[in-house]
Known about the structure:
This protein has ten helices and eight strands. The chain is α/β, with parallel strands linked by helices. Helix 2 (54-66) links the parallel strand 2 and strand 3.
Amino acid sequence: MDNFFSKLAPSYTFEIFPPKGNKSTEGTYGVIDSLVSFNPDLISVTYGAGGSSRDNTVEIASGIQNRYHTCGVAHLTCVGTTREDIRAILDQLKANGVRNILALRGDLKDKSDLGDFHYASELIKFIKDNYGDDFDVFAACYPEKHPEAPSIEEDLRHLKEKCELGVKGLISQLFFDNDIFSRWRDKARAMGITQPIIAGVMPITSAAQIEKVVEMCGASVPERVRRFVNAYGHHQGAVKEAGIAYATEQIIDLLARDVEGIHLYTMNQADTVRRIDSGIRSVLYTKRYAVRADG
């Protein structure tokens, strides 16, 4: 079994999204061709709203694992799925050698979209009860709380419940303010959450992206970010340059704060990843392979 958690910290991971429905996966594999050259510890593959890319998620996660010999992580959600659906997906992933799952509730348009599982914790319990240690399960965490949670404290209590079911690691929702992440991480540790927490970073590459991000996950946008988006909003190239610079600086600062991993939301933009990778590589690998003498 490919044990991601035995690798050196801080980890370096990417997220991509597959095409929806019957669209060709050729373009996605072209992105992966570029991404694997940066030697990520894993590449996770999202699961479209309502399961719209479910088959492609399984196929691409399997391809990452077997064709590229990189750890593939398949997203799995509660939206529109039955226990039989989930069992069939897990059996296929297991047969293809994919042993890592990111278990999520999924984004809802309406609560009626849910199937047999209503919460990620129910999905995690099903996986652990029926497959034991066949899969390492990741869960999502929210430095600014889940949009539906009444408070950070309540959100953390639910996160701890998920962790106690056997979650091996946590991948955070994207955020732009490292101070917010650090304060949240301190609260999580104080509550007894011990799993590795991988920090999610999304580079801003267009002005329109900011509004989508805020609507999607409720991440707060620092004044500094709004300033460059407003200043360069009509010049997408300039926004992208500023966004890459900001994400690079954000990651370097997170590494200085001893994060256990960086999870880059790539938006399938390999060139953006290349630029960021170039900016952080010496810091990341100094951090990973530095030998600290005892005493």
